[in-house]
């Protein structure tokens, strides 16, 4: 029997040499939304000589991320760009190395471990809220970045981030756009060339590395003194390879530490920033949210036991991540040729899945552009993947949801926010979906004082 003829998926027209690279550089969210709307659930694009399929149907997403996950790896342009920051780590490695690393990291994310973090999360949030008293304007995106960074530092690395939070935040503002910017170029200058952009990137990365190596050195000292912290890094320091008995060396520990410091704060900070923005634009949501928070907490600081009662708070966060998923795009490389939805995906080509587009797919979402947390009162459709899906889905999802619920409840309990009039709000799709101009808000303290 003859094999079926190979079919090419439809796609937007492009330049003969650049393909769709110019549109990608100009407005990548526009390119993704426009091509999904006009070409359907499988779209073939070309970025230079790289064929990329955009998949926008939950069945196709399931095939790539779950059912045939072993045929799709992270030898991708985006992972290569991230590797320039993290090196080989859980986020970027493949195959056996990934499996081994996931096994090592997993115990730190067991349910019983995560619930033990609730108190550190509320204490850090309390300190942030205290620091806002008397302020007339806040960049809530910057405040959230510092808060989530301090939480990940304390919970996973027993590390007080106070003194370097501002330096790390500044470094991230250089690192993320640099990494993402490289994806839109057909050819990049090699990293080692001293171009102004490369120099500034390397300086920023060195800032973050300084922090990371300080954390590692402190843990080594504590371990030598026989008094190790009970955190992710100490656990990784104790792990030994079954076959060789070797532990992780400092550069491997550096790669895991930087991965968790960055992946563990930037994403949640963006989710919270968009959440507070959306709440400020929807008074009816805010009053229902505030009613729940006052009813459940009665003016107290939340504890772990309160979290299951904060159901509307959770729906607000879920709906905010539907409209503004912090990881707005997921990329894989096709290992062996595959057929999806009747179209051929060549070996070595790339597939991208955009939670941003999938979360607004009109076939799965009623009034997709509307902010309506009540839609999460029933289980979401399969077209909802803020934490990805399958074996490589987010290891920190439970951590992130607990943290986001506690922070949203505490902040809303203490303040009502108004967006500063005239402040421009524009999503910036870097590696994460950030707010291009920050998020300037006026905090109005609520009258009741929060009790312990
Ligand atoms: C709202 C917050 C967060 C969102 C939306 C988010 C989203 C995601 C997504 C979509 C993936 C899968 C990427 C892919 O398939 O290529 C992922 C992976 C990952 N996330 Fe998160 N994340 C969040 C918070 C966190 C936190 C708090 C941590 C750690 C403390 C974390 C650590 C990681 C790591 C290490 C991976 C790679 C897992 C692997 O490949 O095995 N994330 N995240």
Topology:
Layout: H1 21-26, H2 28-39, E1 42-47, E2 50-55, H3 58-67, E3 72-73, H4 77-86, H5 95-105, H6 111-115, H7 118-132, E4 138-139, H8 140-157, H9 165-183, H10 196-224, H11 232-238, H12 250-281, H13 283-297, H14 311-323, E5 330-334, E6 338-340, E7 343-345, E8 350-353, H15 355-358, H16 397-414, E9 415-419, E10 427-429, E11 433-435, E12 440-445
Parallel strand pairs: 2-8
Antiparallel strand pairs: 1-2, 3-5, 4-12, 5-8, 6-7, 9-12, 10-11
The protein binds protoporphyrin IX containing FE (HEM).
| Main β sheet profile | 5 strands, mixed
**Average pLDDT reading:** 90
Name of the CATH architecture: Orthogonal Bundle
Order of helices and strands: HHEEHEHHHHEHHHHHHHEEEEHHEEEE
Low-confidence runs: none
Q: Supply Rg.
A: 22 Å
The CATH topology name reads Cytochrome p450
């Amino acid at each position: 029997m003859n094999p079926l003829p190979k079919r090419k998926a439809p796609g937007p027209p492009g330049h003969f040499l650049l393909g769709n690279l110019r549109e990608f550089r100009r407005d990548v969210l526009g390119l993704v939304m426009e091509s999904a709307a006009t070409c359907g659930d499988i779209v073939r694009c070309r970025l230079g000589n790289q064929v990329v399929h955009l998949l926008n149907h939950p069945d196709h997403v399931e095939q790539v991320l779950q059912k045939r996950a072993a045929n799709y790896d992270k030898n991708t342009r985006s992972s290569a760009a991230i590797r320039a920051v993290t090196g080989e780590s859980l986020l970027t490695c493949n195959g056996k190395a990934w499996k081994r690393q996931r096994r090592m990291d997993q115990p730190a994310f067991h349910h019983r471990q995560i619930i033990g973090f609730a108190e550190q999360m509320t204490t850090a949030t309390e300190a942030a809220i205290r620091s806002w008293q008397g302020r007339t304007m806040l960049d809530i995106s910057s405040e959230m970045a510092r808060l989530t960074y301090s939480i990940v530092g304390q919970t996973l690395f027993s590390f007080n981030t106070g003194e370097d939070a501002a330096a790390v935040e500044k470094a991230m503002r250089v690192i993320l756009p640099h990494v993402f910017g490289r994806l839109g170029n057909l050819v990049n200058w090699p990293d080692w060339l001293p171009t102004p952009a490369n120099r500034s990137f390397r300086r920023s990365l060195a800032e973050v590395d300084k922090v990371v190596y300080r954390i590692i050195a402190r843990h080594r000292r504590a371990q030598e003194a026989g008094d190790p912290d009970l955190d992710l890094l100490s656990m990784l320091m104790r792990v030994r390879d079954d076959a060789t008995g070797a532990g992780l060396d400092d550069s491997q520990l550096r790669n895991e530490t930087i991965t968790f410091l960055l992946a563990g704060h930037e994403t949640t900070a963006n989710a919270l920033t968009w959440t507070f923005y959306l709440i400020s634009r929807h008074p009816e949501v805010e009053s229902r949210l505030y009613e729940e928070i006052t009813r459940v907490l009665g003016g107290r600081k939340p504890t772990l036991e309160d979290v299951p009662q904060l159901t509307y708070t959770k729906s607000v966060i879920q709906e905010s991540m539907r409209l503004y998923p912090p990881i707005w795009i997921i990329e894989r490389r096709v290992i062996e040729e595959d057929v999806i939805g009747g179209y051929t995906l060549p070996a070595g080509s790339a597939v991208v899945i955009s939670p941003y587009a999938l979360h607004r797919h009109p076939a799965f979402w009623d009034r997709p552009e509307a902010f309506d947390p009540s839609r999460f009162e029933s289980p979401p459709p399969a077209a909802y993947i803020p934490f990805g899906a399958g074996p490589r889905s987010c290891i920190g999802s439970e951590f992130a949801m607990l943290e986001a619920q506690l922070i949203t409840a505490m902040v809303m309990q203490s303040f009502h926010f108004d967006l500063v009039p005239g402040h421009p709000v524009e999503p910036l799709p870097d590696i994460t979906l950030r707010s291009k101009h920050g998020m300037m808000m006026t905090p109005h303290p609520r009258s009741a004082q929060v009790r312990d």
